[in-house]
Design a protein that fits this description.
The chain is of the alpha+beta class. The protein has helices at 8-61, 174-177; strands at 74-77, 80-83, 86-89, 92-98, 114-123, 128-135, 147-153, 155-163, 168-169, 172-173, 182-190, 202-210, 269-273, 276-280, 286-290. It contains two helices and 15 strands. A hairpin with a 2-residue loop joins strand 2 and strand 3 (86-89).
């Protein structure tokens, strides 16, 4: 009985086939691990974007809407920066809003329901962080004070746009333009902030927050035309400034020497009664000035 073994050619073919199978398994496992890492990073970036977007949306939708400019503020500062060779937006948002959550987690801390709230992105060289600052006092310095806390890491871009009814504007100030019709918020985040990934996933989310429109206040320096009463009207039908016997208007009233004419600066009107001059300012206040 003769025993027949494997030839050298058969051994070589078997070795090549085993190498191909092992290489395919190794490549599949490597691709599976890479896909899992990318999915995890994309989910992480999406979670960061969603957290920041929801927070900004909640604060924007609760912005204070009042006629008094001291208690109403919504300002967008347009800015940009470079990240990994890409131009990204780094806008800042400042607003006065109401919130039921206090800065400090204690039973009573003396805070009210109205806050100064500000959002900005800061890159300190190690991490890219979106910061949120809240101040429970609406003061004359809305850009400072309060407590600043990190909102989310990995936020590389924040774009804010205000809608005035016709176009989206990259910059806005409620002191001049009032409250806009809507705010469009665009946030971009990466899934890795450790610097290990060469091309980390880049996720971008966008939302639009509608607001109740509040028109800008009237110009305080605009001239207001008033209709005077008959008792403040001269005999010739024009507003009189109470000229004296020489036909000159009282000093300091801006009148013309012809008498019976309106003031040169249109700041008020007056009438002569007895030995006093009655002057009415644009606010309706009457002042009695004795004649010389």
């Amino acid at each position: 009985m003769h025993r027949r073994g494997f030839t050298l050619l058969e051994l070589l073919v078997a070795g090549v086939m085993a190498s191909v199978v092992l290489g395919g398994v190794t490549m599949s496992l490597s691709q599976l691990g890479l896909s899992k890492s990318i999915s995890r990073q994309r989910l992480d970036a999406f979670s960061r974007c969603d957290t920041a977007l929801r927070t900004i949306r909640r604060d924007v939708i609760s912005v204070l809407r009042r006629d008094d400019l001291f208690d109403t503020r919504l300002r967008i500062i347009n800015d940009s920066s470079n990240y990994e060779g890409r131009l990204v937006d780094r806008d800042e948002l400042l607003l006065f809003n109401s919130s039921l959550r206090a800065n400090k987690e204690i039973d009573f801390n003396g805070e009210g329901l109205e806050y100064e709230t500000q959002f900005r992105i800061d890159d300190d060289g190690y991490d890219i962080v979106m910061w949120k600052r809240r101040d429970p006092i609406l003061d004359d310095n809305p850009d400072g004070g309060g407590i600043a806390t990190p909102l989310a890491k990995g936020i590389v871009s924040l774009q804010l746009e205000a809608y005035d009814g016709e176009v989206w504007m990259p910059q806005w100030d409620s002191d001049e333009l009032g409250i806009p019709h809507a705010i469009r918020i665009t946030i971009a985040a990466i899934g890795s902030v450790d610097g290990d990934e060469v091309n980390p996933p880049f996720i971008e989310l966008r939302t639009v927050v509608p607001l109740d429109r509040v028109m800008p206040p009237a110009d305080l320096f605009e001239e207001i035309e008033e209709v005077e009463d008959e008792e403040e009207t001269g005999q010739d039908g024009e507003l009189g400034l109470g000229s004296d016997d020489a036909g000159n208007a009282p000093a300091g009233m801006g009148g013309s020497p012809a008498g019976g004419g309106s003031g040169g600066d249109n700041s008020g009107s007056g009438s002569k009664g007895g030995d006093t001059f009655i002057f009415t300012d644009p606010d309706g206040n009457r002042h009695e000035i004795p004649l010389p």
